[in-house]
Amino acid sequence: MAAWAWRLLWRGVLAFVLLSIALVLLFRVVPLPGSMVMVERKVQSWVASDPLRIDYRWRSAGNLADAAKLAVIAAEDQRFPTHSGFDFVEIRRAFLTSLNGGRLRGASTLSQQTAKNVFLWSGRSWLRKGFEAWFTLLIELFWGKQRILEVYLNIAEWDRGVFGLEAAAQHYFGVSANALNTRQASLLAAILPSPLTRSAARPSASVEQRSRWIQRQMRNLGGTGYLKRID
What we know:
By secondary structure, the protein is mostly helical. It has 10 helices and 3 strands.
């Protein structure tokens, strides 16, 4: 490759690194105006000529129910307070399961899901996974666990056009995000693997079963006192 091409490449890499760090630092203190998933859903609706209204209402961590914080941790990432963005225990389990012919299962942490939803596009390419790892490292370094959990709960998708815990709580139960009880929180967490095909207000038998499992996990973790472990 010619010298000028190398210079252009490295300048592009440097610009990306500096821009990504600047964005992460900005969103450390500023409420997010939206996420890449929201943009993606909007574009998909335009292409399909199927209008979509985004319901998104940012709420600070103090206005999000502790039960909901614990429920998503119990459901999605029980080692969230202690890992550095990547749960190598779950990664190893998923790898061994696939080697033994089992169904490949995800091992993404809340940090990885937050990085992907805020900054990246959907998909399973190695390129996107590389960017996801980069942004996961950045938010772990600059945000910390409290901010990651706050952002995750505010930008998670809970139904078509419904983003964030406040919008989800109002949409499904007619209450604010800080008023969710344990059952409501566990139902919301239970539909996260497939929020576009499941309902927290009219839960199927499988959603009810997962909700009960999440509630047991919440108790096993020690209740909302577990949240004190998050720095």
